[in-house]
Amino acid sequence: MKSNRVRFLLAVAATAAALTACTPAGTAAVVGGERISSAELNQNIEAVKREAAAINADLDAPEALPAKLPQVVLHYLVLIRQSEQLARRDGITVSESEIDQQIKRYEDAYQISFDQLAPRVGIPKARIRDFMRAQVIQNKVAPRLGITEQTTENEAMEKLDKALSEAAPVTWNPRYGKRVGLDGRFELPDRFGAADADGNEG
User: Is position 141 within any domain?
Assistant: First the structure.
């Protein structure tokens, strides 16, 4: 799979990120008041590693991911929670058939089953339907934000980013750095590698 395809998939999953200097102990991020624990994050990271290894996907290859795996996985966990909170606020509902259709759209676009694609981009298989539900929610809110076929990708991401941030502001644990841009990339703190290696909070 070409790296630009992976970056595009990550780019369509816009998240809002407001970095502050403090999060509760054992917390990876707080999303609209909802805590994502370090334990939950680590469980999802380990799942991705196992699933990627099972299909011989090298997540350490250059350009395989836009950031370190822990940050990429956290990016998706935050996106899912933000989208759910946006849906609750705006009364958006999503059916199982709509999720199935969204999965099919990705599979048609990438010519690969999403079970095979997900580990390659840092999504645990157990969270596929949650991620796709988040995508459907964003698709449904897009027209309300003035996003049309004429809207550029960057403009659309900025509008979605703002809507998600307003519905569910995010506080990131500083050890994960600061997300920059709209493609899931992060600005890394110098101590990230050591913190990640021992699993302790920075």
Answer: yes
Please check whether residue 187 lies inside any domain of the structure: yes
CATH of the domain at 80: 1.10.4030
Q: What is the pTM of this model?
A: 0.81
- Express each pLDDT in 40-49 by its tens digit: 999 999 999 9
3-state secondary structure the chain: CCHHHHHHHHHCCCCCCCCCCCCCCCEEEEECCEEEEHHHHHHHHHHHHHHHHHCCCCCCCCCCCCCCHHHHHHHHHHHHHHHHHHHHHHCCCCCHHHHHHHHHHHHHHHCCCHHHHHHHHCCCHHHHHHHHHHHHHHHHHHHHHCCCCCCCHHHHHHHHHHHHHHHCCEEECHHHCEEECCCCEEECCCCHHHHHHHCCCC
Residue 24 falls inside a structural domain? yes
